[in-house]
Amino acid sequence: MTAAEAPPAPTRDRILAAASDVFAREGFDGATVREICARAGANVAAVNYYFRDKRGLYRTVLSAWQAEAEERFPLGPCRSAAPVEERLRDFYRAMLNRLFLGAGEPRASHGRARVWLGELLRGGGMEESPQSQENYRVMDDWMRPLVQAVLGPVEGDRLRDAVDASLAQVVVHFVGFVSAPQVFLAALSREGEIERMAGQMTRFALGGLRAMKEDDDANA
Predict the structure, then answer these.
(1) Fewest CB atoms less than 10 Å from the CB: which of 46, 53, 156, 176?
(2) DSSP string, 23-58
(3) How far is CA 46 from CA 60, 144, 156, in A?
(4) Helix boundaries (H) for 73-151
(5) Is the separation of the CB atoms in 112 and 103 below 8 Å?
(6) Mind listing the pLDDT tens digit for each residue in 13-59?
């Protein structure tokens, strides 16, 4: 069977593909089930059948985006024996690639990043977003052993402060990409820009963690 003779994609897949485009462009509030179904060549009732409602479809799209970015740019084991500087750079590189290239190219990824930010700002924030909670859990699990590799076996507020400060660099790039996309699109057109960013983030994180370690040792 040739490509021209191939059967159409199943209805559920067509709806997901259309919803991905519409949500990335319009966000949750601006997207309509009617437009999604028109683009998918599907009946509006199919959304209720496969996803229960618009919110269910939206959650499925977010999960698909998350899985796609993770598949494109996987993280290795968080407790690797590699030097902490190397593991930090790997982490930041993967997070930047997921942010800027998770959808395949920066402009499409910007649309998704804008939706993710809206997801965090809507209603109850992260508490109401299981996908955002999972993203944060993965980052938190990866960063904790790296922080402890520098600071030692710290726990409680000291660990929480160090992890949050190290993850904040990812958040800054995320918000910056959403709010000033042209600046980042211009930067990303330069070869090696993501690697440069990851290196800079690594230096800042290590510098801050080592300063915390010096304070801890001085106050011991």
Answers:
(1) 156
(2) HHHHHHHH--HHHHHHHHT--THHHHHHHSSHHHHH
(3) 14, 43, 48
(4) 84-101, 106-121, 130-151
(5) yes
(6) 999 999 999 999 999 999 999 999 999 999 999 999 999 999 999 99
Rounded to whole angstroms, how far apart are CA atoms 195 and 85?
14
Q: Which residues contact 70 (CB under 8 A, 6 or more apart)?
A: 98
Mean pLDDT along residues 102-122: 93
Residue 192 DSSP code: T
Burial of residue 198 (CB within 10 Å: 0-12, 13-18, 19+) is: buried
Q: What pLDDT is recorded for position 121?
A: 82
Residue pointed to by tokens 């990409």: 177
Q: Whose CA is closest to 113, among 103, 123, 104?
A: 103
Radius of gyration for the chain, computed over Cα atoms and rounded to the nearest angstrom: 20
Measured CA angle at 115 (ends 184, 19), to 5 deg: 120
Distance CA 78, CA 119 (A): 27
What is the pLDDT, as a whole number, of residue 101? Answer: 98
Separation CA 189–CA 61 (nearest Å)? 28
Cα separation values, 8 from 4, 11, 60, 123, 215, Å: 10, 8, 21, 38, 63
By C-alpha distance, which of 202, 208, 170 is closest to 89?
A: 202
Q: What is the rounded CA–CA span in Å between residue 210 and residue 84?
A: 12
Q: What pTM does this model have?
A: 0.91
